Amino acid sequence: MNILLNIVDNPYFQNISSGIVGGLIVLAFQQFSDRRTKNRERIENSIVGKKSLKILSQDFLYQYEPGKITIAKLIEDFGQPQRKYFDNEHNNYIFEFRNAKLEVISRPKDESVIALTVFSRLDEKYPINCRLSFEEEDQILGEAKISDSIISNSVHFESYHTNLGYETIIGCYNSYRQTKHLRYYYQISGKFDTIEQAKNEIIVQVCVTEDSDIYSLFSYYDTFYN
Question: Residue 139 and residue 27: Cα distance in Å, rounded?
Fold first, then answer.
């Protein structure tokens, strides 16, 4: 017993014990830090701007603007699209994410992007902001509604019949100087005789284009709900 007490009281033994305990603490902290780093990298690698994409970033429609980017840049950021098809006038690319679908229309000659269309389910964890005018606060797709600003700046209003009922498209411009060259097309569900009747209707998807004659919207059969 005395021998054991002498060993415990020995400064050399105490130094070794302190070193072992300290090493274990450092190792545990390092492992915790490594796990946090890997989790952070996993999340970062799943959003726009990374190779292995799974999630479209919330501010995508504000970060990427038609006329200022090329399809090559989008493929570099997103990876290859799931679908693509071409004609003599336009190239179309479909990208699929966990929280959204994206269609890109570009020019064949210089590959510049003309239009971007985003459809997104209402995802509380990974929402996507609907592109609205700068006088309005950010709202996410699935909650954003047709507003007075959209109605007053409208340049296009059309209700049309589909196999699953009526849908309506409202196109408008933005008077904000930096983006007044862009046009916004919003799709809502239902038939309306006047654009005023569409106020407060939920926006299902949005297309941002630099050419008012070139825009695209996903059909019901191309959405998550088919």
Answer: 45
Local structure of 123: helix, strand or coil:
coil
Amino acid 117 reads T
Per this entry, what is the length of the chain?
Answer: 226
Which pair of structure tokens corresponds to residue 177?
């100087």
How many other C-beta atoms are found inside a 10 Å radius of the C-beta of residue 218?
Answer: 20
> What does residue 94 show for φ and ψ, rounded to 5 degrees?
-115, 120
CB atoms within 10 A of CB 101: 20
pLDDT tens-digit map of 153-190: 999 999 999 888 899 999 998 766 677 789 999 999 99
CA separation for the pair 205, 164 (Å, rounded) = 17
| Three-state secondary-structure class, residue 160 | strand
- What gap in Å lies between CA 167 and CA 158, rounded to an integer? 8
d(CA 95, CA 74): 10
pTM (2 d.p.): 0.75
